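Reader question, answered in our methods column.
A reader sent in the components of a multi-part assembly and asked whether the whole thing could be modeled at once rather than chain by chain. We filled in our standard form and ran it. Here is what they sent:
COMPLEX SIZE: three components
ENTRIES:
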Amino acid sequence: MSSFWSITLATLAKDIRLEWRSKDALNAMLFFSLLVVVIFMFSFDPLAEESRHIVGGLVWVAFLFAAVVALNQTWARELRNQVLDAYRVSPASANSLFLAKALGNFILVSLLEALMAPLFVVFYNLRPLGPAWQLIPVALLGTWALVVNGTFFAAMSLRTRSRELMLPLLLFPVSIPAVISMVAATTNILTGEDSAHFYIVLLLTYDVVFTTACLALFETVLQAE
Amino acid sequence: MNSIKFLYAAYIATWTIHALYIGSLVRRYSRLRRQMKDLGK
Amino acid sequence: MKKAFPILAVLTAVLLAYAFYQAMFVAPTDAMQGDVYRIIYYHVPSAWTAFLLFFINFVASVQYLANAKPSTQRAAKWIVIAIGVAGAIAPFIPQVRQQLPTGMYPSSVATTAIIIAGLYFLVGRYFPGQSLDLLAVTTAEVGVVFCTIVLITGPIWARPVWGIWWAPGDIRLTSTLVLWLIYVSYLVLRRFSDSAQTQKLAAVLAVFGALDVPLVYFSIWFFRTQHPQPVIGGGGSIDPGMLHVLLISWMAFLCFAFLVCWSRYGLEKLRREVEEAEALESLLEPAGHAAPSSKAKIPLSRGSR
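And here is the structure of the entire assembly that came back:
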């Protein structure tokens, strides 16, 4: 069991180190995230009375776009040098590779969210009327929901034409209940009108169900020729 | 009554979609038969 | 078997015509909606047919994945038997009976559980090996066709009755939309995937989709409790005269769906035969250039992109 986690963490550390050495992709993604927030600010009037009701949706759509950009490059490095083939024949569990990639994406997307969220607060003058601390579980669970399925579908898209298009095409339908929950929870917390409790529980359920499914089926996807 | 038009629209839409799909099946069938014949040569 | 097709086609056409006659002239007029409610006789049977087809796809996908190894195959069989037995007995236990939502009879839950288990074994028996995948493709595609009809007739029905085309909180229509999206993405994956393991990947996607559907249902259900919206398609009990026609309509559409699936299944078999023949031909071709064909794909090299 400990070797499983040591492999996972080693792979994760390698990814972080490689990404850190050449921050090009990271910087491009950060800038993209900034642009998305700015575009939204111009498209959806921040001064409108109703803005507090729609910001929940805007924030998560912006996060979704940023996540897709991040997820699309998940396996790019592995493909270039036949690393994926090496992984297939190694005795390491496929799931340790999956978890390493998913955790790496989680960190990356959280970083992007950490950049975008303050911008939204600034542009939309956000002040949560409900319990603000609940935004943390919503953000964590919601991000994991997007990332765990995103990493999985990115692997599924590897051997398809239009790989970058395939990922959102597969990810979005399956993510709909998570997106509904994230947006509704965030809106409820910001407007203070209703409780976000049910949605947080639903997000947790979603995360458990799909993390299990991904771990159970990743081996099949990895071995696909 | 105006709303009866929606009833007709729904029924026409249903059969149009079915017709289009069956048409695509027929088209694919004939294309495959042609390919099979070409290969048989 | 092939000779039966024209006869069945004629019978189905007759049945559909009869159902149409019943729907338009025999079924009583709705007190509130007038005659426009008769859309229900196309809308609801299409929905039930689509759901049945998608469910068969799910069963076929699970079996396809489970059959990869004998151990998982056996495990899956036992799990299905357990579901069937538990589902048949549990609803009659008093504690469980109380938990059932109002209107759901224990006998219908039991019957559904037995049908689900039975369907699994029927599919396994009549569609061995690769034909399981043929069944999956067929039911997915025909299911999408019927689902499209549901999504088009739904708003057409809603507009005159409720004044709006769509209500995001309408749990049935929105769940159907998500189901449609999942299966369209399933078909796109099949079309775009070059892998020799496309079938396995598609089966995995079908499993993910099936896991997703109850979550979609719950999320919209709760959303609706906080944002009350009209229920398109009406809730509540249905007049027995209408139910009778609804069932006739459903039977007619099931027969029709069966014939379409049969055709699609045959088409897929033919397509694979042609693909194999073409692959064989390009293998046997001497150094010369093989006849260009878009379908011949032999995965001889990895990472060719």
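What stands out: Chain A has a mean pLDDT of 89. Chain A touches chain C at residues 79, 82, 85, 149, 156, 159-162, 166, 169-170, 172-174, 176-178, 180-181, 184, 188, 194, 198-199, 202, 205-206, 209-210, 213, 217, 220-221, 223-225 (CB under 8 Å).
Send us your own complexes using the same form.
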